[in-house]
Task: inverse folding
């Protein structure tokens, strides 16, 4: 039994924190019309009654709206962070203050406490896990295999998490069904492109006070996150350079009008480097050696392994905080390479950072909420095998319709004639 | 046995036509580095030796480069058009003049001759069919079922064709394997978006002499073609309005910054209407009644059923050619609605139109060529069941690599460490 | 006395030409709401009664609408072309058929006839000249100085013309007042940016069947025309490279996100080169020597002196028409450099070209028409000194208001309080 | 004699503040290559030796680099803020610690202290004034006319300041020469467009955690600032709506593809409103009454008079801080209108705000520095009359060249032949 303390036991000025957390949540709630609709439905119909949900997510105001919706649906919820630097203690405290919710998330904890908090949520003996980065699934499979039998299923929020889950499933090691929430159109098309793109750039701008216009911005990786960063940087008049390992993506970037080149060449000309690959060792020693004085290095991928800071530290003759959240590594030849937010997810870990915009999380969490509902409805009936599952398309579509209605955006529907036409194959030229 | 005459028997000044057709093909060849590489490979290795290929495609210079590559690979080829207005007679004649190629394509034929020409190609008793709109597959299944046994497989070029093939397969009616070339990344990401987008707008501009800046351009449908048209119109400073029936696509357009509304509302404010849905009855009587004087109506979808011209004709009190390729329908209240290219595929059927740009067809036809090769290599060994098949990803990737090499675009490759990392699931936060 | 024949005396099938010319003019008229309003006003009020106007302009449908409006206002008009390749003979014939209008413009005339036609219009003994490139002003000052006394003033349409007029005025050589219509906001902000930009690219695309996506498009000069070409090319997903001689403009292009480099470097990497400088010798021998096989060379500046074709011809070992309007120059090493429209103004001289879009010319010609009216109202009273004059701002504003009304675009107006505030200087922080 | 205390006398932890201020300045200095070159030149040549400069500017790190350059050039400098909320006390302290610099700027002072600090700088009996908003010029003309005789001249940084100066000059009230630094190409083209655009949006995003994608963003005013905000918002996939009072600007926005409408209509549909007009009463009672729940209201114009907060307060039934820097005004019908940064300049006064990006201020302050040098060189010789003067073009060009050199951007130069051609007027078609 974990003895890791809930957040309320860790804070000094708890009442103030709870109040501030609530204010942050109210702002989020005001701009999350999908979750508002979902929460009302959950409150009325109690689809999660009697369930126990463990969550490892970025604990800040938007996530809190998902957590409270799940609790409103009848579940008992235990939540912790999925990144030591992304937790807002006040929101954590406000959540912990809600009935049926326990929060263990605290900002800045060390590795030991980070995993202790994860174990604390597992102590709930969850029937559902909700992950952003697969930490819960990994911990349960490694250390608490005895709990797997009672777990109905899980949801995974992020590209990297889904990637790892698939690798695990390929190894035959994943023993309960997990929804790849990350892979739904509603998540991928908006969260990764608009969310990561806008928030990473705004965090960088407000952390450094630098401009995008005319800058050579090197975007490593041209998946959905990379596309978002490239698109938004280009929209701020940066000259975007893309590095890729997949030829179709490289060609796609080239045809968009971006420069495409290997990182070894990009290192010579880039002013700002933003990694989005989900892979490791994207910017390494040979690149640091070629970079110009004053460059910015930032990461918008899930883990802090894309920029090889150990190698950079070895190269550096000096190292100092150039600005809050910016560490300058000074080379022997006087060049200064500025690493933002220690190479962690810049839109969450930079001093000026708020994670994804409220509206994109509204969409993404809307899918999470109905995916949890779906798991309970179907998976209890054993309809989902262990493994990674796509969220059923009609659920994703349901969330899109709620969003369009909230935005007062009207759209057409097929007539019967059109539906027939689309289903037929005998009409000619 | 068809007695439909090949193009050389239909033209008066044949020699001039052949010469002009060859000049057009040489220009295309100069800008189709992928096909150049494929043709060289086919000539050397004769992967299609002894095969008979029937093709119903837009017969103009770029397609001709595909046709000659297939013949260079050892096949006997019979080709006709897939749209009565898209054929270039001179290119048709130049093809017909090549060894092992017979062309029946002639511009402006009526329905009877159109289908007679298709039958003429079927007379070859093909082992492979290559379609752009499924006309060959449909004709063979309906009228020549006895040929199906000897057909190895087919390739389908276009969205609409694949859509109809899938409907046919769902009915259990498709009796040989067909590659959905249209669905490959190399086709979808470039042909539909860049090709349809750029060429439709340039054709419209050069047919009408009108400007895009500040125009309300209504794009019906937000699939790949619609996205292309919207993106390129926006890039010419149009104010883009999107109509859709699918909520995720509607939302995607909305989040891109476009206006999204039902056609019934768009009809009030649009200056230019471009349909891209692949469906019928997109612009109908109720819309015509609301449109402003002087609007342009054009179609970028495969078939000419998206704009209901019969209804428009019924409403009109007068009708005259306002400009080459532009038919003005005058309403009782004096409003003139200008239909471009009779509502047929505007980038092929407008008086100033050249189909897709050379470079995008180079990619698309590169996939076609290796897909035909694949069918023969594998399908003879019965590896492909009857039905619609995705083109194997490594073939698509092969074409991307050829293209990037031709453009001198270099890109990164994974290190072993990175490959291992991407395949592992045990690294934590 | 000139004996140069009017167009009606030069054409064989005159009636057909006139009819076709009228149809073209009707299409233009349908999309020129500003000129429609101006013409109605001129017809009613006859502000040009008794005047004689000589015009050297691109004689095609849109210009024809200006010509007929001036005639409708009471003037006698003689018109000829300002570029041997831009005249539409049918429009010229239709104009010549109108009362009080004589047209001498004919497509493809040689230098001798070109200037003879200009002299023919001067034979009218004009009170007003309307130029696009300063040919009339130059010819009158050089060869007909005796006419200057009776000339009230002139209008100049183009950047290059105004530039030359200012040089002439600086030399003290300009002896009557000329309005720099080119320099008005209504001309510069729309004609050069949107008009030149859109039409040059559409002409190039429809002349070559090539795509913009992923192309390195080198734009020489970053004035209004260059900005337009760069902006629209970028909007078609080209990778834009700018060359400039003025540091602020170079910096502006750089801050927009474009690559900026000297032509000597751009020559290595460009796929398409478009000159817009108004200067000569922009692309010369040293550049030809470095270019890749298959590049396109085109000019969007007024004169055909930006690309040094003589030098290119000297370098070439062969030269052939690769495509209508495209001359391939083959180098000794096999590289082919493709020159579009003989280096003349591409949006007017290419085989597929229509000049500026109708709507932009509507704005520009609206200013021309009211500038002519202004000259007569004020200059007869000697209010304008010899020299280059800005069109009075209220005239330019008048045209903008007519256009916005025609487009149903409503805008705000200042309250009295706001007007006072803008005129005051004593409010603090 | 003013007794207003310098900042060092007002702070408790002075040493820490000075250190932090210096760190901020070092970061700015690292990204201000123009100022670095200017400062080195000033140090070497002492062009300002013996002068006294009073400055009322936004006192933060970037401005500090200008202040220290002026001091390095030999001047004694007294500086204060030009906006009570834009001062960084630590930077103020670090400046005050420099030889020959006195700083009176303190964040959050009330009106009385604000003007007392301005008077304190005037106590220096300046020979040069440097303003951002004309406060110094106004105060000197109103209250210290006796100083005017010894003042050589001034510089004004901002649109609004220049506007007021011109009004003052029109009244014959401006008694010394002032450079309209704001009106230089180097300021206008970059500071207003890129600087205001990028920083306003990033501040708003990081203050509210909201997204731009798909938002209706109403930009009031389409001058340089409005263009920047519109361009950058559009580049983040907002749907931009522009309101204007000038028809050419309204048309320019319309032709860019933006929606243009009166504020009374925009009020119905806007999600975010950003004023940039420099005028007052842009958003008033009739607009508040029509707005949707949850809208954001922000100002990017110089003064806080664009949004009528008094009227909003009268309408509201409740008012609370929804988020740091966001005041929610609750209407009787439950709608909440969220005002950001009290309607003050959002990129300076929002809780997350840093003013303009470093690089744009580098350009703008480069011009300031050489303009001050110019005033001393020429104006002592009485070359500049009292009134508003344009900065000489060669100074502006000088700064552009320094910047391009710093960015390693090379550009072309005119050949003699080209220079002759541009100066001639006798070349024909």
Result:
């Amino acid at each position: 039994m974990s003895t890791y303390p809930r957040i309320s036991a860790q804070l000094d000025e708890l009442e103030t924190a709870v109040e501030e957390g609530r204010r942050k949540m109210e702002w989020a709630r005001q701009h999350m019309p999908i979750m508002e609709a979902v929460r009302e439905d959950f409150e009325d119909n109690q689809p999660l009654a009697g369930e126990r949900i463990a969550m490892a997510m970025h604990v800040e105001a938007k996530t809190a709206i998902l957590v409270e919706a799940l609790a409103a649906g009848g579940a008992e919820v235990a939540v912790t962070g999925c990144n030591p630097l992304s937790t807002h203690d006040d929101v954590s405290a406000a959540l912990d203050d809600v009935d049926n919710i326990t929060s263990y998330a605290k900002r800045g904890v060390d590795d030991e406490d980070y995993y202790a908090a994860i174990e604390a949520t597992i102590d709930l003996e969850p029937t559902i896990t909700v992950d952003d980065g697969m930490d819960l699934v990994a911990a349960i499979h490694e250390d608490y295999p005895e709990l797997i039998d009672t777990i109905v299923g899980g949801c995974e929020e992020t590209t990297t998490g889904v990637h790892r889950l698939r690798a695990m499933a390929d190894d035959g090691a994943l023993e309960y069904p997990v929804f790849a929430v990350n892979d739904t159109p509603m998540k991928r098309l908006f969260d990764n492109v608009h969310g990561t793109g806008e928030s990473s750039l705004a965090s960088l701008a407000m952390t450094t006070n630098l401009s995008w216009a005319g800058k050579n911005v090197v975007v490593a990786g041209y998946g959905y996150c990379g596309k978002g960063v490239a698109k938004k940087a280009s929209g701020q008049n940066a000259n975007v350079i893309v590095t890729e390992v997949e030829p179709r993506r490289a060609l796609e970037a080239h045809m968009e009008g971006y420069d495409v080149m290997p990182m070894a060449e990009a290192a010579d000309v880039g002013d700002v480097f933003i990694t989005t690959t989900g892979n490791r060792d994207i910017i390494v020693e040979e690149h640091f050696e070629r970079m110009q004085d004053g460059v910015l290095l930032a990461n918008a991928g899930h883990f802090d392994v894309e920029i090889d800071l150990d190698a950079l530290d070895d190269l550096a003759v000096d190292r100092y905080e150039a600005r809050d959240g910016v560490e300058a590594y000074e080379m022997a030849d006087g060049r200064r390479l500025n690493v933002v937010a220690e190479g962690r997810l810049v839109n969450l870990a930079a001093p000026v950072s708020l994670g994804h915009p409220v509206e994109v999380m509204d969409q993404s969490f809307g899918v999470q909420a109905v995916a949890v509902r779906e798991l309970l409805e179907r998976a209890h009936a054993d309809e989902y095998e262990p493994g990674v599952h796509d969220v059923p398309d009609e659920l994703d579509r349901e969330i899109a319709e709620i969003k369009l209605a909230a935005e007062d955006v009207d759209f057409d529907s097929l007539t019967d004639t059109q539906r027939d036409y689309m289903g037929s194959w005998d009409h000619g030229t």
Q: What stands out?
A: The longest strand of chain A covers residues 318-323. Chain A has a mean pLDDT of 94. Chain A has two domains: 7-187+355-406, 194-349.
